[in-house]
Amino acid sequence: MLSNDPAQAADDLARWAENLQRTAEKYQELHGRMAAVSVTETSADNRISVTVDANGVTTAISLAPATRGMDPAAVASELMACTKRAQAKLRVQVTDMVHAAVGDDAAGQSIVGQYAERFPDVAPEAPAAPPTPPEPEYTPPAAFTPPPPAAPAPGTRKPDRDHTVTPDEPDDDDLYYRRKSWLE
């Protein structure tokens, strides 16, 4: 509230302007520090790593060579889990920065509230299943070579071995297929 004394009112306005200037400088500094923040989270088995920026956007993903044999659904699930954990850590860092830079003023609380809404705490996860070993590579068996046929013993030749039996008259199937072309 301004006083009736013009000199006092001018001093009050000058102090008010200085406070606004200091607050603006604090928020400028906070903005610069927040823009430089990034958080990296790594999976428990160190196969997957995700980095997020100050907005919680993924800026880097690192997959160890050991992920090559993993189930793609498991890789995707772990990527999402790492991202959510990194975003939750980001929220904690930003909250600490805001409190250190500007305290508990309304604008600072608004920033903290927005981060808390966008990046909630991550539910503790169940212990991870042990990694599945990669499938063994298929090695074809050595070529099979049957043993040479034994020579028939003399005098053991079966009679009618060279005799071929065919029907005397064609049946319906034979007639049907004789009229068909292989192009049909």
UniProtKB/TrEMBL annotation:
Keywords annotated in UniProt: DNA-binding
Record-linked Gene3D superfamilies: Nucleoid-associated protein YbaB-like domain (3.30.1310.10)
SUPFAM superfamilies: YbaB-like (SSF82607)
Pfam family, one: YbaB_DNA_bd
Keyword DNA-binding appears in the UniProt entry: yes
GO terms of molecular function: DNA binding
Region listing for Disordered, in residue ranges: 122-184
Biased composition (Pro residues): 127-152
InterPro entries: YbaB-like_sf (IPR036894), YbaB/EbfC (IPR004401)
Biased composition (Basic and acidic residues): 157-166, 175-184
Annotated protein name in UniProt: YbaB/EbfC DNA-binding family protein
Species assigned in the record: Nocardia puris
